[in-house]
Design goal:
This protein has two domains: 255 residues, Luciferase-like domain (TIM Barrel); 63 residues, no CATH class. It is 48% helix and 17% strand. It starts with a strand and ends with a helix. An eight-stranded parallel β-barrel has the order 1-2-3-4-7-8-9-11, surrounded by five helices. It has a two-stranded antiparallel sheet with strand order 5-6. Helix 6 crosses helix 7. With 330 residues, the chain is α/β, with parallel strands linked by helices. The longest helix has 16 residues. The radius of gyration is 19 Å and the shape is globular.
Length: 330
């Protein structure tokens, strides 16, 4: 593969030295970017700063940093800090997160994601270039903010997008797009929506980078891996934004049955509604050869940078993560 990304998701049983070792392995294997996930685990920029400091070439990116929990000014300061630690080795993956995380966990109002995203990205680009922000918008206000250190400049901005409107907006204003939970058969359709957004504002669609998370497990124990991924899909499908996405890609019956069981409090039955074909469409599971072949198929369908998100059903997951990372090289 010409390009590869690696997603590192914080886990309780993995130490910081273990994460550093995985980052170094990814660098040796030719991975281009380490993408860090954030929900209720480690603070993303602190975590990735260590990995930047302990590697030499590989880039780092939040994937995603929520625009609801960080102001444009704070995001620019974080990017400037990474520019100090490792100049030219960072990207910014931004997104609107979910109503559960933003509202229930942080106590903030989750609203109008499209308008907020457009305003946020415009402010952030100006701040990254070192401009003084005088902004009184619908969602954000800033009076005279300006970075007091060397500005990092035009850091590539990737937008997480799952629905059609956000995909088109990403095509209009972003440098790249972060996709997730897109089945192989729907990749061309999704990429076409992104490109339509770019064309609508006179941009060359080829200038946009398409990156996509692929939950991947290199294993001989397929049944256990399928069960783990079934649990993960269920956790996402309870959120409105992802349930709509899964329905859009043809999994209406599975989502309806899952949500019905979930509302009745039967978590095991809810998870059982995620049928094997849905798991197979959304995950990459099998031997190293099988997994590499499937990832290559996503690239052929239009993904520029497949992001390997290693997972394992094993309690002591480090050897399994290591095996999955080592199975791929660029």
């Amino acid at each position: 593969m010409k390009r590869l990304g690696l997603a590192l998701v914080p886990q309780r049983d993995i130490s910081m030295p273990d994460y550093i070792a995985m980052a170094r392995l990814a660098e040796q294997q030719g991975y281009e970017v380490i993408w860090g996930a954030e929900s209720n685990g480690y603070e993303l920029f602190s975590f990735l700063s260590v990995l930047l400091h302990q590697t030499h070439r590989i880039k780092a990116a939040p994937g995603i940093a929520s625009m609801f929990t960080r102001t444009p000014a704070l995001m620019a300061m974080s990017a400037a800090t990474w520019h100090l630690i490792a100049p030219g080795r960072s990207l910014l993956g931004l997104g609107v997160s979910t109503r559960i995380i933003v509202g229930n966990w942080h106590g903030l109002t989750w609203d109008q994601p499209l308008g907020r995203t457009a305003e946020y990205v415009d402010m952030l680009r100006r701040a990254l270039r070192g401009e003084r922000l005088v902004h009184h918008g619908q969602f954000y206000t800033s009076q005279q903010f300006r970075l007091g250190v060397e500005p990092p400049g035009d850091v590539p901005i990737y937008l997480a997008a799952v629905n059609a409107k956000m995909l088109r907006l990403a095509g209009e204003i972003a440098d790249g797009v972060l996709l997730t939970w897109v089945p192989l058969g729907a990749v061309e359709q999704v990429v076409a929506e992104i490109r339509a957004g770019a064309k609508a504002v006179g941009r060359d669609p080829k200038d946009l980078d398409i990156a996509m998370y692929l939950r991947t497990c290199v294993t001989d124990d397929r049944a256990a891996a399928v069960q783990w991924l079934r649990h993960d899909i269920t956790g996402y499908a309870v959120a409105d934004v992802y349930s709509r996405v899964f329905r859009r890609f043809g999994f209406q019956a599975e989502v309806a049955a899952m949500q019905d069981a979930w509302r009745r409090g039967d978590r095991a039955l809810a998870m059982a509604q995620i049928a094997d074909p849905m798991v197979d469409a959304l995950g990459v599971i099998g031997t190293a050869d099988v997994c590499r072949e499937k990832v290559e198929a996503f690239v052929a369908a239009g993904v520029d940078e497949p992001i390997i998100l290693p997972f394992t059903p094993q309690a002591n997951g480090l050897p399994a993560y290591w095996q999955t990372i080592a199975a791929f090289s660029a």
